[in-house]
Amino acid sequence: MNKIKVFAPASIANMGCGFDIIGMALDEVGDVLEISIEDGDGLTIENETNVPLPADPEENVVTPVIRKFMEMTGKKAKVGIRILKKIYPGSGIGSSAASCAAAAFGINELFDHILTEEELVVCAMEGENLASGGYHADNAAPAVMGGIVLIRGYEPLDLIKLPVPGNLYCAVIHPHMIVSTKEARSILPQQVPLHNAIRQWGNVGGLVAGLYSSDISLIGRSMQDYVAEPYRKQFIPGFDTLRKNILQAGAQAMNISGSGPSVFAVANHFEPARKAENLMKRHFEAMGIEYETFVVKVSNKGTRVIY
Predict the structure, then answer these.
(1) Does residue 211 sit in the same domain as residue 278?
(2) Among this protein's residues, is 63 annotated catalytic?
(3) What are the tens digits of pLDDT across the range 126-177?
């Protein structure tokens, strides 16, 4: 086999309280890459989507992913990548992570699964570093592995796939605004007051406990962020009002997806998730902001081969 087509899902980083340490895959939207190898050395990237991407391969997130794979495995090949479907950059639903996951997974398939799943996340993190200036796996890990992933630690990388309750639904809206991940990280304080840190620790523990016990109510009340959201919500017009309306309509929680501008809500049934989606639509329509939305049941599917 010297050519493969793969799909990598979009993802939601943080899930409120889990800044840089928890992420969730969203199965019904993502990137599609076709990857080929032949004898030789080098990398070519073709963008066959209507999404603008860097013309210089050195600025494309898949380049450091492929280089890291070759470095880790000692392999050598002339690699060709065709980007066939692309999440819009800056959407806040793991655009760079999806491409990185697809590139890592696809090249590993072509070399007969030489790396483990966790090692593929390490490769994908190289692209995330190029995109945002930091080695974080809260999008890359769920994009590769699927489901909900906890990053217990980074030195060394320690990934734990958490259980996904069967009735966990997610509504997501991507308003057509750009929020730079680098900018969204730069506004965060370098120190967190102790009382906020204590509340955040409790919420992370509550979120993990809720996932293991399939307690959607506990999951929802644990998804409160005292570290990033108070600073990042300024990028999303009317954020507090939107959340109030969504919670009153029956959703369990609403948070910023990653660094934004996408926001998401979780619910214990399809209907309150659909209501949340409709409220999101009306909120941004009133401001004249275009958007895309979707409602999905959170699943355990990660990056995979498609035909």
Answers:
(1) yes
(2) no
(3) 999 998 888 899 999 999 999 999 999 999 999 999 999 988 999 999 999 8
Q: Do residues 28 and 144 share a domain?
A: yes
Q: Which of 34, 63, 181, 303 is catalytic?
A: 181
State which residues form the domain around 233. 169-297
CATH of the domain at 277: 3.30.70.890
Confidence of residue 299 (pLDDT cuts 50, 70, 90): confident
State whether 68 and 146 are in the same domain.
yes
Q: What is the β-pairing status of strands 42-47 and 291-297?
A: unpaired
How many folded domains does the chain comprise?
A: 2
109 with 255, same domain: the answer is no
CATH of the domain at 23: 3.30.230.10
- Taking the C-alpha atoms of residue 186 and residue 264, their distance in angstroms, rounded to an integer, is 22
181 assigned to active site: yes
A 10 A CB-CB count for 70 gives 18
Catalytic residue among 119, 128, 229, 277: 128
Tens of pLDDT, residues 89-119:
888 899 999 999 999 999 999 999 999 999 9
**Which pairs with CB-CB distance under 8 Å and at least 24 residues apart come from 203-209?**
203/16, 203/17, 204/17, 204/18, 204/21, 204/22, 207/15, 207/16, 207/17, 207/18, 207/22, 208/150, 208/162
